[in-house]
Every structure is written in structure tokens, then in C-alpha cells.
Design a protein that fits this description.
3 strands; 13 helices; globular; mainly alpha; three-stranded antiparallel beta sheet; hpI Integrase, Chain A
């Protein structure tokens, strides 16, 4: 690993305080490139880097690698390791609407859960909690009991280590309280497996797949979609989701437009008949 790359890893670890997974991803992307090309990244031109990255046919994967490279070059320029700023262009990806579920679909699935057991209470509460708060599954699984403060959720382990506070709908809060009353008070974390240990990401995925047929992240999309179609301000949704950029949140406005279009097609007489 080059000294510039070591400095960059130290920067995102200490100064930016990124999550361990983010740091590992940056280090893996950049270190692999240096090993493949057998040169420090700082000494490579754009053409050599693009040739090395051309093996990634999946555009989303390619863009992740490009994002790592651009972040590294931006750091090197600001740290005066480079005289000129270098930025590689991202591959164009068609915009796809995020998958989401309606409140009715979620309600119907919740009725399938047997709440006579503590695991049933947990699964019921977890699904409601994810839909009611829009929390990322990583944020959800890191929750300690003390992070639920009345009708508010204090997310301390957010992406990029940015804390935020979001309200919890009363029906979800009641479900969580009912579950926690059955859980041993010795458990520090809110979400636990049958052994009383912290629930894993895979187990959480299996729960939402079992009852909803989707990943936990779809409930985050469902939360945002419900707010936008219900008329919530885009910047408020941005804050609730913990998005660093409003551009990330704006994808949900496409859902709103699609909803408006479908309403016109169903309700307006000119959409059904020819003049």
C-alpha cells in the first residue's frame, strides 16, 4: 500500500469517522487497483485506471470503484499530493424506481405473524419499527434500549456516524414495548435472537423475507414513499432518512409523479375515451 493510500485510510478513519464497512470497502477497492497495476494510484493516469476498471461489467459495481478512486484523488489534491484535481466520470445508469410496499400490504402480512411467542412479538415489532422509522437495518440492529426515548428514536450509529432523532408512530412503539416487556432486561440490544444475542443482519433479512417477501431496506423505501405521496416536504424526508444530499432523496419524487399519472389514468374521463 502506497503512503498516500495509507494517509487516505487514516483520514477517513480518524477525521471523517466512517463506518468500518465503508473503510474496508475503500481500502479493498483502492488496494486491489494498486496491486493489479503494480503502481501507486497517485502515479497512474485516467486511461490506465479506466482500462483496469473496464473488467467490471456491472455499472453499479463500476461506479462504486470509481467513487473510491475519486474520493482518493480529491483527498490527494486537497492534501497537495497532486497539483491538479482528477475526477473520473461515472457510468450512466438508468434510473429505476425503488421497490416499496403499501401500508395495506404490510398490514396484511403482519396478520400472518403468531404473536403468542416472544419471537413472533419480535418479528411483528421489527417490521412495524422499520416501516415506522425508515431506519437502515444496520442502524436498527445497533439499537440499545436507551436509544428509544419516549416516542423518539435516537439513531447513534448512523451511516457516516451522523446521529439523528426521528419520531416513532404510536402503533410501532406499542409493539416494541410489548416485545421488550417479554425480553430479559439483561439484553442491551433491542433486537435479539432466540439465544438472547444481538440479532444478525441475515436473521433480519430472513424475517422480512418470510412475511413480506422483501429485504429490510424495502421497508425504508416504503417509509419514504408513504411520506412523499402523503405530501411531506422533501427536505423533511431527507432529514428523517439521514441522507447527506437532497439528490438522494429526490428519487422518491418520481414515485409521486407516477402516482399522479396513475390517478389521472384511472379517474379522468379523457384518459379512457377518445374524442
Amino acid at each position: 500500500m502506497s503512503k498516500e493510500l495509507e494517509a487516505f485510510i487514516e483520514y477517513i478513519t480518524v477525521i471523517r469517522a466512517l463506518s468500518k464497512k465503508s473503510i474496508q470497502a475503500y481500502q479493498s477497492d483502492l488496494n486491489t487497483l494498486e496491486e493489479t497495476l503494480q503502481k501507486p494510484l497517485i502515479k497512474l493516469d485516467s486511461k490506465a485506471l479506466l482500462n483496469a476498471l473496464s473488467s467490471y461489467k456491472n455499472k453499479r459495481t463500476l461506479n462504486r470503484k470509481l467513487s473510491s478512486v475519486n474520493a482518493f484523488f480529491d483527498f490527494c489534491y486537497k492534501s497537495q499530493f497532486l497539483e491538479e484535481k482528477t475526477k473520473l466520470k461515472f457510468a450512466k445508469i438508468p434510473k429505476l424506481l425503488p421497490k416499496f410496499l403499501s401500508y395495506k400490504e404490510i398490514q396484511n402480512s403482519l396478520q400472518l405473524i403468531d404473536r403468542s411467542t416472544i419471537l413472533g412479538l419480535r418479528d411483528y415489532a421489527l417490521i412495524l419499527f422499520l416501516y415506522a422509522t425508515g431506519a437502515r437495518i444496520s442502524e436498527c440492529l445497533a439499537l440499545a434500549r436507551e436509544d428509544i426515548e419516549g416516542d423518539w428514536l435516537h439513531i447513534r450509529h448512523a451511516k457516516g456516524e451522523k446521529e439523528r432523532i426521528v419520531p416513532i408512530a404510536s402503533v410501532a412503539k406499542e409493539a416494541v414495548d410489548t416485545y421488550l416487556n417479554e425480553l430479559s432486561k439483561e439484553n442491551k440490544f433491542v433486537w435479539c435472537n432466540y439465544k438472547g444475542e444481538s440479532l444478525s443482519r441475515i436473521s433480519a433479512y430472513k424475517i422480512t423475507q418470510k412475511y413480506l417477501g422483501v429485504s429490510p431496506h424495502v421497508l425504508r423505501h416504503s417509509y419514504a414513499t408513504s411520506l412523499i405521496t402523503g405530501g411531506a416536504d422533501l427536505r423533511v424526508v431527507q432529514e428523517l432518512l439521514g441522507h447527506a444530499s437532497l439528490l438522494t432523496t429526490q428519487i422518491y419524487t418520481h414515485i409521486q409523479k407516477q402516482d399522479l399519472k396513475e390517478t389521472v389514468e384511472v379517474c379522468h374521463p379523457m384518459a379512457k375515451e377518445n374524442i
